[in-house]
């Protein structure tokens, strides 16, 4: 179904958009007719991707942004609106893994860093996007994890940060329903990314799907086809088009 232009004319913001799932979402969204605004801590890391998207005929903006910095988030949102004039989709994708060690051994500073990026950063980006998404009846999609709906040993700060993200998604769904803004969480499942390799160093990556292969659910939730869908959690690998 790729390339059916399901997002024609829409503008999508993707945090953590320089690599992995964020980069493949940018590719897929452009194929579906969307313009994309990507943020990355090091914007130069997305230069090749931006060139690729523009060569393919897409409109792409890349902004340097630390999602834990409220002023930088506001600047990213402002730059997106200045460039494209609107916002229809937010994908809260920026994330860090942290150590996979027992809680008794977990470094406190690292705990704070992971929670700050994965949960506080998602909060700051979502908060900054509420008004522009309300203007278009847009969609928020929050990237969770297989450990995002329960506690699992040895997942450190990552596990509670993703559980918190799913709770935030549900809260936003309830609070923004009257404004016509949808909020859903997606567990992408196993993907062939650097984060997955760090989490499972002994795994044979050949059997793990590339991020692009699980992008259907993100397109669906960003499209008008999902206009009545909010407050839900989806497993990307289980998704089938309605």
Architecture overview:
By secondary structure, this protein is of the alpha/beta class. It has 7 helices and 7 strands. A 7-stranded parallel beta sheet has the order 3-2-1-4-5-6-7, sandwiched between helices. Helix 3 (70-84) packs parallel to helix 4 (108-136) and helix 4 runs parallel beside helix 5.
Task: Supply the key terms.
seven-stranded parallel sheet; globular; Rossmann fold; 7 strands
List the helices and strands and how they pair.
Layout: E1 11-15, H1 20-31, E2 35-40, H2 47-55, E3 60-64, H3 70-84, E4 89-92, H4 108-136, E5 139-143, H5 158-176, E6 182-187, H6 194-199, H7 216-222, E7 233-235
Parallel strand pairs: 1-2, 1-4, 2-3, 4-5, 5-6, 6-7
> How many strand elements?
7
β content, as a range?
A: 5-15%
Distance linking N and C termini: 12 Å
The largest beta-sheet arranges its strands as 3-2-1-4-5-6-7
- Tell me the series of helices and strands, N- to C-terminal: EHEHEHEHEHEHHE
Main sheet, how many strands, which sense, barrel? Answer: 7 strands, parallel
Task: Indicate the overall shape.
Answer: globular
Determine the CATH superfamily. Answer: NAD(P)-binding Rossmann-like Domain
